[in-house]
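Page 37, continued from 36.
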């Protein structure tokens, strides 16, 4: 899966609340130059902290993509570790060994670790599980934006063939193993947290964000304010249409202009 620095520009088509795509007007087709930046440039140029500038859609994309990093599990316990401190540990060979778009993912991490907006973000609850027998490829991580706000990021399909096989199963039937894991993961992370939760992910990660947010307990669902899916496949309504309807208004989907999936 080859991507370049221009893969996710901030003027990707936005579909709020899972509604139909808007008509493409001339203004829509030709975004303003100042809006025409990719997410690495956004991190490099945004100097405001989250206290100075509230969380926005671009931040959701950044955190969703950072989930492709192989964070060292022995360094990421339930207590958060700062992004800036992870950079200082210089575990780059381990952290990017399976990263989608290696150069871009590493560049994004380095920019975030130096950014006044992202460097103090805490990282916790990192998990990565690969099981060829059950065709499960699952990884997720928590980003502590503040004491009262967390972003739960689910990884999309990585370089392992197991993940691609699971994607085929996802297209045929729900739920797959990673979807089941996503519900358990969100439940574990959110149970002891009384603040606001935002979930999100890219590709399959977006699907997992929607699925887990829909099927978690009501007490956890009430903490979730937004659910981001960046070019993620939809969730089969037959899984539980009533539960999907409960989170319908919280879902924000983005689809790149070249998307064939989302």
């Amino acid at each position: 899966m080859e991507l370049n620095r221009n893969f996710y520009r901030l003027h990707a088509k936005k579909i709020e609340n899972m509604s139909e795509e808007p008509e493409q007007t001339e203004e829509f087709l030709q975004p303003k130059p100042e809006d025409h930046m990719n997410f690495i440039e956004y991190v490099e140029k945004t100097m405001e902290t989250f206290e100075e500038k509230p969380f926005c859609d671009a931040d959701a994309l950044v955190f969703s993509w950072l989930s492709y990093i192989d964070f060292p599990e022995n360094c990421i316990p339930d207590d958060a570790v700062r992004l800036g401190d992870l950079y200082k540990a210089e575990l780059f060979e381990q952290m990017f060994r399976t990263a989608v778009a290696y150069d871009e993912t590493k560049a994004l991490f380095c920019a975030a670790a130096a950014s006044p907006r992202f460097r103090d973000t805490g990282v916790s609850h990192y998990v990565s599980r690969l099981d060829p027998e059950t065709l499960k490829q699952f990884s997720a991580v928590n980003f502590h934006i503040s004491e009262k706000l967390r972003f739960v990021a689910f990884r999309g399909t990585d370089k392992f063939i197991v993940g691609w096989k699971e994607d085929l199963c996802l297209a045929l039937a729900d739920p797959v193993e990673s979807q089941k894991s996503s519900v358990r993961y969100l439940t574990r992370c959110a149970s002891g947290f009384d603040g606001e939760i935002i979930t999100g992910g890219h590709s399959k990660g977006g699907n997992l964000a929607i699925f887990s947010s829909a099927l978690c307990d009501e007490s956890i669902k009430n903490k979730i304010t937004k659910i981001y899916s960046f070019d993620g496949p939809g969730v089969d309504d037959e899984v539980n249409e009533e539960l999907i309807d409960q989170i319908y208004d919280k879902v924000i989907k983005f689809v790149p202009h070249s998307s064939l999936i989302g």
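Confidence is low (pLDDT under 50) at residues 1-7, 19-34, 160-164. Flag for discussion at group meeting. The chain has one domain: 13-19+28-255.
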